[in-house]
Amino acid sequence: MSNQYPIGTPGTPWCNEEKQVWYQQQQIQRSYHTNVEFKVKSLSDICTIEEYGVLAYKAGKYSLFALKNKNYNPEHATILITGGVHGYETSGVLGALAFAERYIEQFIDRYNFLILPCISPWGFETINRWNPDAIDPNRSFYANSPAAESRLAMEYVDAYSGNIIAHIDLHETTDTDNSEFRPALAAREGKVNHNWNIPDGFYLVGHTQKPEPEFQKVIIEEVQKVTHIADADENGQLIGVKLEQFGVINYDGTKLGLCMGMTNAPFVTTTEVYPDSANTTPDECIDGQVASILGVLSFLSSQN
User: Which CDD domains does UniProt cross-reference here (predicted)?
Assistant: First the structure.
C-alpha cells in the first residue's frame, strides 16, 4: 500500500469538491495544437481529415480529429487505430500519426484505415490519465458514457462499425501509473491502493471474449524487431494479471468499458509500451507502436 493520497479522506469516495481540488492542481505542460493538431493537418496530402467533435472545457476548446485513407473503399475491410485515450501516453499518439505518415499508402489497395490519434487532448496537454471531470476515458466506452472523449469517439466510429475487421488501441504503462494514477484512483473511489509491478518492456492486452492468441503472437513477433518485450514477474503475471503467452495478458474489454471493446471487430488488442525503461528511447517507443500496427497487417494478410 502506498502513502495516503493528498486529496480526500481515506475510505471515502470523492465528491465534486475533491474533484475540483484535483482539477485545480492540473497544469498545461505541452500543446495539443503544436504537437498533434499541426501534425494531423500536415498529413492532408495522404489522408482525409475529419473533425468528429469538439471538447469544450474551462481550459479551452479542443477539436477532435480522425484520419482516413483517401479514396476510402467501402468494399475493403477497415482497420481502426486509436491513440491518446489516456492523453499522457505519448507514443500512442505519435505512433498512430507515424504509421499514417510512413505506411498508410502502402496498404490502401487492400484495407481502409480509420485513425483517431488523440482521443483525450486535455489529457495530452496536462500529461494526465483522466479528463477534467476526473473520469478515465478508457473505462468509459459504453452507452451514455459520462466521458465526452469516449462518447464522441464511439459515435463517430459507429458509422463504420460493420466493416471494422481489427482494432488496435495504442497505450503505455509508465512509472506514474504507480506514483500518481493508481493512488489517485484509489483515493477517488475511497479504496485501499495496491500498486502493481511495472513491466519493463512492451506487452499486449487481448480481449478475454475474443483472445485470438495467434493474432497477438504475430504482433509480438513484429514488435520484437524494434524493441524488447516484457517478461512476466515472479508470479507469472504482468500488472497483476496471468500471462496468456509471451508478452500477452487478457482483459474483458467490453465489461471494463475499454476502448478496445467498443466495436464488434473480431481482432482487437491494446498495446502497452514502457517509455521509462532504461533500455529504450522515445523514438523506439513510437517505432514499437508502429510495429504493432504492422503486426496486425501481417496477421490479416496471412489469413487471406
Answer: M14_REP34-like
pLDDT of residue 1: 41
The cell for 21 is 481540488
Q: Which fold has domain 16-303?
A: Aminopeptidase (3.40.630)
Counted residue by residue, the chain has a size of 304
Distance from C-alpha of 293 to C-alpha of 107, rounded to nearest angstrom: 12
What are the backbone angles phi and psi of residue 251, rounded to the nearest 5°?
-125, 155
Percent of residues in the chain assigned helix, strand, coil, to nearest 5 = 35, 20, 40
DSSP string, 47-72: EEEEEEEEEEETTEEEEEEEEEESS-
How many other C-beta atoms lie within 10 A of the C-beta of residue 224?
A: 17
pLDDT in tens, 229-283: 999 999 999 999 999 999 999 999 999 999 999 999 999 999 999 999 999 999 9
Any idea which residue has 503505455 for its cell?
A: 172
What residue spans define the domains of the chain?
16-303
Q: What is the pLDDT of residue 4?
A: 84
Backbone phi, psi, residue 88, to 5°: -75, -10
Q: Give the pLDDT confidence score for residue 2 in this predicted structure.
A: 45
